[in-house]
Known about the structure:
With 273 residues, this protein is of the alpha/beta class. Helix content is 43%, strand content 14%.
Amino acid sequence: MSTNTSDNLRKVTTRRLIEMKERGEKIAMLTSYDYSMARLVDQAGIDVILVGDSASNVMAGNITTLPITLDQMIYHAKSVVKGTQRALVVCDMPFGSYQGNSKEALASAIRIMKESHAEAVKIEGGAEIRESIERILCAGIPVMGHLGLTPQSINKFGTYAVRARSEQEAEKLVADAHLLEEIGCFALVLEKIPAELATRVASELTIPVIGIGAGGGVDGQVLVAHDMLGINNGFSPKFLRRYADLSSIINNALGRYIDDVKTGDFPNASEQY
Ligand code: KIV
C-alpha cells in the first residue's frame, strides 16, 4: 500500500482526478484484465485501473490490439470491477466498436457501462471521432481520450515508433488535446511522444494528462502491469521500468513443483487427508 493512508480508502472518481491535478498530486494508473490482478493492484493503492485493449496482446496472445471484441472487453472489465474497491475503473473501447458512427459508439459504450459496471471508457483518437465522443458524453458516460501512439491504428502507421516528432503532427496533437478537453473528456492518455510536447500539453490543459512513454512532465503515468512486473519479459521499450522479475520467480516455482511431483516429495504426510 502507498503511504498516504486516508486517501487510500476514498473511492477515486473522475472529479477527484481533476482535483489531484489541481493539487499537483501525480496519478498512478496500471492495467488489469482479471479479478485477482485487479485486487492486488487496487489494494496497493493505484488510482486508476485501465482495462486496456492490450488484453488482446497480453491475455489472448494476439500481435495487435485489433482482434479483441466488445464482448471480450466487457468480460475482462466485469472481472476487474469485482476485484476493485477504491480505484476508478476505465475500460478501453475496442477497435471497431466506435469508429463506424456515433450511434454505434454510444451503443458500445452503454454496453460496457451496463454490463461491466466500469466507471468510464477510453477511446483512441481526436477530431476524427469527435461526434462519437460527444454522443457518449451526452449519455453521462465519462470519456478518457488517448492521443499520440494509438495502437488500434497500427496498420495505418506501420510502426510503433515515437509519434508527433514532426511539427505538423505535434500541432495536430495539441489541437486534438484541446478539443478533447473542450468537449468534456475528463482525462487524456498520451502515448509515446516527445517529453517536451507532452509537458506542453499537460501545462495547457486543466484535465489530467497521463503519460506512457511521454516523460515526467505530465500529471500521471500508466504502464501495462504485466510489463512492469516482468511477467511479459519479451517486451522492453525504453520507457518501461521493470519493478519485478515475476517470470523468473514463476519459472523457478514451477520447476520446483515439477521436481517435487516427479520425485514423490509432494504431497508429504502433512499435505494429505
Ligand atoms: O491498452 C492499454 O493497455 C493502453 C495503455 C498502454 C495506455 O491503452
